[in-house]
Amino acid sequence: MRVSRYAFLLSLVVLPGLASAQDRGVALNMGRGLNNGMSVGWTFRENWTLQPTIGAAYSSQGGFQASLGSTVLRSFGSDHRVYGYIGAGVYYGSANNGAYSTYGGGGQTPGTVNGAAYNNVYYANSNITYLTAPAGLRARIYGNFEMFAEAAYQRTLSGEFGPNQSGQFSGNANQRFGATLGITMRLQ
Q1: Averaged pLDDT, 77-87
Q2: What is the pTM of this model?
Q3: What is the CATH number of the domain that holds 26?
């Protein structure tokens, strides 16, 4: 396990940039999926981006959720039009506020979520700290606008992920894998 961590970190540093994939500047990212919402990316050095994120959301099922964290991304590619990236980051926030349910557990007393009866209802109110390892592809579509598709593996250090996050393909309460689709507008 330790070898794979070092190999991942080493690949962030030595991945060859065949040409400058990403110039310095600031960009606004908007995505939907495993990572919902908006973030700002600051490309502080050619092909290196710091993406600090402050998030806030509310839903009737999940309640209020907020997060704070940052991801460092390393871009690589052969031109400015299409390029890939990988990264690593850490986040802290509230998660799983409100109620969620699972089916099954015959014979147990049913509960309700938003007026619907379910066999197992869980009420959670916890904070979460997690690591993320994204990899994605960006393509410039017009002028300063880019589209991106990103897959990420996320693992908790404390707390648990909610079971029904949009964009989530697999996972459990402590780790998950999912995707985010979005658009980026370069401001500089």
Answers
A1: 85
A2: 0.70
A3: 2.40.160.20
